[in-house]
């Protein structure tokens, strides 16, 4: 297999990147995807940086063995920790995530922007640089422990967690909530219940999918005919993790179909 026919690798510490995968499949239906959830080493967001770097290196080595033509780091934490180093030594396209602070900044009308992400994402230089440019009114809200609830599909637990976390804020003064962790995208319905209708909820999934499409087209690697296949893998217990991934991929695809602006 050569060139455009090869699959695209997508990875995360667990099921979070499945939300990105849903958008990728929607935007690039002819592509083959190999999704790798590093469940055995989750969570990334509360581990030392060096450990996350080692995990990202190991996953990347696995994906390269599968002859992927590009990789999407479908994880804000792993992108902040490892994207620059991986790009410096590999030539294939590596697309990462970043909290959607720029679009949130553009629609802000004087209120606060709450940026929900892992403690790691919010302390690394990549986020600090983003804050320096688009951070007016933005408040970092580290959410240690929240990804674990999504991994367990504990939607009630996640609702209670978020209600407690948001109780610190006057929500009538909030313009937008940024989902700066790919796991949290699955909590959109839960958040909508907790937030006034005037608050926008933003994620970076579509921006990442468009960036991938652009880069593949530039390098002559885009597939535009046929129906792509998706393979799901985990470093954890497959019998436990794969059914959760499959259910969440269906949920991610439903969310994409409900979105009006997806192209
Ligand atoms: N899904 C990951 C992210 O986007 C992180 C979750 C974790 O492993 O802590 O940041």
Structure commentary:
With 263 residues, the chain is α/β, with parallel strands linked by helices. It contains eleven helices and nine strands. The strands form two sheets. It has a five-stranded parallel beta sheet with strand order 4-3-1-2-9, with helices on both faces. Strand 7, helix 9 (188-194) and strand 8 form a beta-alpha-beta unit. Helix 4 packs parallel to helix 6. The longest helix is centred in the last third of the chain and has 21 residues, at 238-258. The chain starts with 7 loop residues before the first strand and ends in a 5-residue tail after the last helix. The mean pLDDT is 96. The site of D-glutamic acid has 16 residues, from helix 3.
Task: Please trace the helix and strand order, writing H or E for each element.
Answer: EHEHEHEHEHHEHHEHEHEH
From the spread of the alpha carbons, the general shape counts as globular
Give me the side-by-side strand order of the main sheet: 4-3-1-2-9
Strand segment tally: 9
Count of separate DSSP helical elements = 11
Question: Which molecules are bound besides the chains?
Answer: D-glutamic acid
Write the topology of this structure:
Elements: E1 8-12, H1 17-27, E2 33-37, H2 49-65, E3 70-73, H3 76-89, E4 94-95, H4 101-107, E5 112-117, H5 119-123, H6 125-134, E6 138-142, H7 146-151, H8 155-166, E7 174-179, H9 188-194, E8 200-202, H10 205-218, E9 230-234, H11 238-258
Parallel strand pairs: 1-2, 1-3, 2-9, 3-4, 5-6, 5-7, 7-8
Helix pairs in contact: 1-10, 1-11, 2-3, 4-6
D-glutamic acid (DGL) binds next to α3.
């Amino acid at each position: 297999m050569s060139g455009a026919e090869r699959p695209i690798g997508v990875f995360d510490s667990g099921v979070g990147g499945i939300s990105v995968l849903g958008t990728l499949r929607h935007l690039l239906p002819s592509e083959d995807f190999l999704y790798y959830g590093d469940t055995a080493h989750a969570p990334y967001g509360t581990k030392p940086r060096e450990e996350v770097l080692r995990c990202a290196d190991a996953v990347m080595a696995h994906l390269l063995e599968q002859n992927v033509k590009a990789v999407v780091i479908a994880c804000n934490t792993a992108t902040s920790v490892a994207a620059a180093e991986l790009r410096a030594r590999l030539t294939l396209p590596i697309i990462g995530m970043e909290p959607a602070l720029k679009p949130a900044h553009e629609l802000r009308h004087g209120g606060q922007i709450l940026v929900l992400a892992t403690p790691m994402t919010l302390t690394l230089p990549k986020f600090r640089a983003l804050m320096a440019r688009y951070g007016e009114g933005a408040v970092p809200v580290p959410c240690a422990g929240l990804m674990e609830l999504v991994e367990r599909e504990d939607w009630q637990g996640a609702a209670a967690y978020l209600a407690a976390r948001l109780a610190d804020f006057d929500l009538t003064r909030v313009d937008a909530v940024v989902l700066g962790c790919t796991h949290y995208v699955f909590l959109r319905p839960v958040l909508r219940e907790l937030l006034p209708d005037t608050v926008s909820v933003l994620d970076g999934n579509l921006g990442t999918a468009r960036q991938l499409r652009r880069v593949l087209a530039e390098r002559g690697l885009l597939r535009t005919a046929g129906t792509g296949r998706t393979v799901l893998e985990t470093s954890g217990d497959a019998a436990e993790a794969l059914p959760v991934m499959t259910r969440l991929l269906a949920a991610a695809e439903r969310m994409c179909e409900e979105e009006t602006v997806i192209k």
